[in-house]
Amino acid sequence: MTLTAGVIAVQGDVSEHVAALERSATACGVDLTVQRVRTAGTVPSCDMLVLPGGESTTISDLLVTEKIASEIVGHVEAGNPLLATCAGLIVVSRDPRDERVHTLDCLDISVDRNAFGRQRDSFEAPLPIRGLERPFPAVFIRAPLIDSVGPSVEVLAAWEDRPVAVRSGSVVATSFHPELTHDSRLHELALFEQFS
């Protein structure tokens, strides 16, 4: 099977997600082409998308400016998988609690930005995730907190009773950075599961 993955490359951890996708494809026995998406026109050719962490207001501004935002929404509406991490989670949320963020409104959640603290408060923790047999080494860096989830949203993982990974339809979003570990299972769960 040959698939195409797009990593939204306007800002953030792009190279790390590209590497994680390549590891996931190898683990799943999939022939994968990875494209870095910087302008409109590429998303429609992608079977799966990643919206990386970075700075949520900058990412959302560039998605609108480059006319990529509506293509991502169309991708999700067509039932294609999207993994959104950290700032990406904020951008896909229904309510980012920040009027500077142009939300894609793909996920019925509200978010508290940087709820886990500043850069110096970053940490890594073994996180049990629904669908994975062993805990995942989750890396939290200025991570957002998911304040509330709508009825269509499944909580996949929580840290100290706070949701940090959720799924709704074809969208999986995490407060943490799965791309900053050599463990590709989260990418496999979010993006490759429906193609197996």
Give the class from helix and strand content and strand pairing. alpha/beta
Low-confidence parts: none
Strands of the widest sheet, in order across it, are 2-1-3-4-12-11-10
According to CATH, the homologous superfamily is Class I glutamine amidotransferase (GATase) domain
Instruction: Give the strand content.
Output: 25-35%
Number of strands: 12
Outline: globular
C-alpha end-to-end distance: 9 Å
* Rg on CA atoms, Å: 15 Å
Reported for the largest beta sheet, the result is: 7 strands, mixed
CATH architecture: 3-Layer(aba) Sandwich
Reconstruct the topology from this structure.
Blueprint: E1 2-8, H1 14-28, E2 31-37, E3 48-51, H2 56-65, H3 69-77, E4 82-85, H4 87-92, E5 93-95, E6 107-112, E7 123-127, E8 136-140, E9 145-149, E10 154-159, E11 162-168, E12 171-174, H5 185-192
